[in-house]
């Protein structure tokens, strides 16, 4: 799961970089939500909010990946 943690931190303004296991759990939850009919971007936000501490004031100078790109990287392992 190549560098998924830092990408999740950037996309969702997380306080900390998720571990590999946390990133896998995020991907599982996103897939479950999508299978229930939730749109991918919303599914990613819901899962991140449930699993991680988000800092809305955090400013990171990087572009965020799409949900599809993040899920593809999660499947690599």
Structure description:
The chain is an all-alpha fold and 77 residues long. It has one domain. It contains 4 helices and no strands. The protein has helices at residues 4-12, 20-35, 40-51, 67-75. Helix 2 (20-35) packs across helix 3 (40-51). The protein is globular. The termini are close together. The model has no long low-confidence stretch (mean pLDDT 88).
Largest sheet features: none
Number of strands: 0
Class per helix and strand makeup: mainly alpha
Distance between the termini: 5 Å
- What kind of oligomer do you see? single chain
What percent of residues adopt helix (DSSP H or I)?
55-70%
How many distinct helices? Answer: 4
- Write the element-wise H/E pattern from the N-terminal end onward: HHHH
- Averaging pLDDT over every residue, what do you get? 88
Given as residue ranges, the uncertain stretches (5+ residues, pLDDT < 50) are: none
Total of domains: 1
What is the general shape?
A: globular
- As a percent range, the share of strand residues is under 5%
In angstroms, what is the radius of gyration?
A: 11 Å
Features:
single chain; 77 residues; mainly alpha; 60% helix; 0% strand; globular
């Amino acid at each position: 799961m190549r560098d998924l943690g830092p990408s999740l931190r950037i996309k969702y303004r997380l306080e900390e970089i998720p571990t590999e296991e946390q990133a896998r759990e995020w991907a599982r939850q996103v897939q479950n939500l999508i299978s229930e009919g939730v749109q991918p971007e919303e599914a990613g936000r819901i899962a991140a909010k449930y699993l991680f501490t988000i800092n809305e004031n955090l400013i990171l100078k990087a572009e965020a990946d799409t949900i599809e790109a993040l899920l593809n990287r999660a499947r690599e392992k």
